[in-house]
Amino acid sequence: MRAGRSLTPVVSYAVRACLPARRWTGLLVVFGACVAFGLLAHVPDTGRDAAFARVASAGLFGLVLPLGTLVIGDGVLGADIRRGTFVYSWLSPVSMTTLTVGRWLGGSGTAVATMAPAFALSALVAGSPNAAAPAALGAAIGAVAYVALFVAIGAATRRSTLVALLWVFLFERLLGTALTGIAQLSPTWESRAVFTGLADVPADLVRRGIPEGWSAVGRLGIITVVALAVATWRLGRLRLTGPAD
Amino acid sequence: MGGTVTSPTGLSADPALASSPTIEVNALSVWFGPKVALSEVTCSFGPGITGLLGPNGAGKTTLMRVMVGLLPTGAGTVRVTGKNPRSDRSTHRRLALVPEDEAVPDALTARELVRYVARLHGVTERDRPDEALGSVGLTDAADRRLRGFSKGMRQRAKVAAALVSDPQVLVLDEPLNGTDPIQRAALIDLFRRLGAEGRTVVASSHVLHEVEAMASRVIVLVHGRIAAAGDHRAIRDAMADRPRRVLVRAGRPRELAAALVGLDAVAGLSVDGDQLTVGTSRARDLAVALPRLARSVDSRLLEVRPLDDSLESMFRELVR
Fold it and tell me: What are phi and psi of B180, to 5 degrees?
């Protein structure tokens, strides 16, 4: 079967069946959080752009992006496997690559459509319109990488939500803050580096030792491809046990 | 374990093996950590319906999931139409499973689920999803979300999803779970038709009398091993040396009981009104002697029937 023909239903299924039933509520939460962080940028006495850069670095890229994409990324595969409904996709002649890429595309599309406008809105609310495009781009590329990462985690373990949270808060936040080598593998740090590399931000927000700007986009692309390769490999080795096993 | 086998008509010498197999399971073992789920299982399935029976934890679901590739083999091989269902994705073009668990994508309607499966299988006929839904009586509920479906309706939606790809091999794990008697009869009829069309249908169930009505051939799994295979009545006959009970209703029951006590084939006897419950380990000998003895004491036989000629009793014998 041609991959293109079977990709469409997989993407459509990922959006229709896998994402939370109340995803519109979740979308509102993301937008609400972004607006709140945008308003928070009015508090410091520093200039609007600098204030938003600080709020975006810590709050938007450090919190909203990983948690928002975790809900979507886990939903498109990990939750489907845990529920036992992934068998309807697995038991088909469609290749594992198509299944992986289709789930990732469905999740990424939803994540980008949610995150990018929300991050841009946050910049506008903060009174830093010049930062809107870099923030949206960082959010979009970061969301794409994060969804790939969470799809890979979903294929690797049934405890994908817990492992994903450990990845975000232990690996990225704790170890990534201390070790540059870890930060280079982190969608949080690299998407933040897309923003800090393309927007006008205070010098102390620029993290040395990791790719910045468009180079960070390339790095996130590599993370995405590697994560999808791992997910495809793991899906082929999945043990889909039943309740009686 | 007895390993009791029989050789019903149309099967090869080993009744666990089908004469023209579509699914071949060879020396299959599966472990879950330290637990052995299947141990050196060798069997095959060909066109027609085969019942897969056994008590809870016997390994039926594991065997079925390995047969469709959802689980890897620990040792041994599984081939479906000559291909490995675990590694060769093309096997799934004509292979379908109705899983035991109730899980269905709740956010979809029944029609959306069936269409999704159809599109994954490259089904081009636009009417196929509607036909599949119609075959399980879900046409009217096709546009309702699965989250609002009863257990029986979910079961039928899963069957429709399995049928939409027109599978040559259909593996049904407890397919009648949650269905009401009318739905069960309709599904049994559907599965019979599929088997009669030359498809390979493997069905497991705990509702044994339904499997007796449905399956032309039975494989019994106990503790992860094949305990018996063949026609379920033939299996019972081969177990003739095992104790079984026969109910005899007759006139002059006490006189008939006195005559039966002297018979070697009788291992135990109780009388309750006009009913005798006769324990025997040689049912054929009892069947031959009973009319003669009844005549000799001028007793009229009103009813003779085995009390434990069901698959439930067979399980009890096999696992003892």
Answer: -80, 170
